[in-house]
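Recall that a protein's primary structure is simply its ordered list of amino acids. Everything else, from secondary elements to tertiary packing, is in principle encoded there. The following example makes that idea concrete.
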Amino acid sequence: MKRKWIEVLPLWVLVITFLLVAFLPTQLGVWTEFKMYESDRNELIHGVRNGQIVLEQKSFNSDLLLLPPKYSHLSDGGEIFMNQAKTSFFFYSYRGILSDFNGFIYVNDSHVNDIFEIFDSYHTIKKLNEHWYWVIS
């Protein structure tokens, strides 16, 4: 009996290693990035909502807004989406070539239904705290 357990041990080590490599870095990376930049993102949002920071459109007819150089590291590409009422902000974490992307959304109202009303193209929405969500398109 002991010999059979030892024979399948390498298989179990392989399965556990695969699961750790496949899933842990993603979740750990999301949480680390969120915590690392949360205060800077909150500072930017507060400045925009109070009129102290003005964001420029990337180009005519573009919904993307350029971040000031001081804050450009907060979103992949240095650009964010913001609704007209300045109550929701989308910061890219990853931008795919065609259409896939993920990132962090700040919503002033703490109800997850607001995200579905504002941003309807996400297949994953995970609440991080009262105002912040992780989304994947």
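The mean pLDDT is 82. The helical segments are 2-49, 112-118.
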